[in-house]
Amino acid sequence: QIMRRDGLISPLGGAIDSSAPEYLQHTNIERVADLEAAHIVPFMLSKYSTMRNLLSMFAGSNLQSRLVGRSINGPSNIFCTDPITHTLFDKFIIGVEYVNQQYKLRKVVTRKAGGPFIARAQDGE
Question: Which residues contact 80 (CB under 8 A, 6 or more apart)?
Fold first, then answer.
């Protein structure tokens, strides 16, 4: 369902799915991968009401209802990307910013993101 929506080229990272036609794969052979679904807001978040409340303050009150149950696994919270980008995203090494109707990968600067906040965060947050 997500690949039908986003196509065979990942909107995050630009990887080309291995099921894409050969002519498309040959345009950037080193970026061919088996695309996989990744949560934008981590699945583990559905357990933490404090974190849901905090995100709702920044992203709007309707976010609260979208972060529980089946909604957190819905298409509006999932994107397709290659396994390496997925891992970097999960480890908070990179983040995603949506600017001018385009997704941008951003490196998380550890000296700004680290410290006591990260130390207190639960696994998956």
Answer: 2, 3, 6, 10, 11, 12, 17, 35, 36, 37, 38
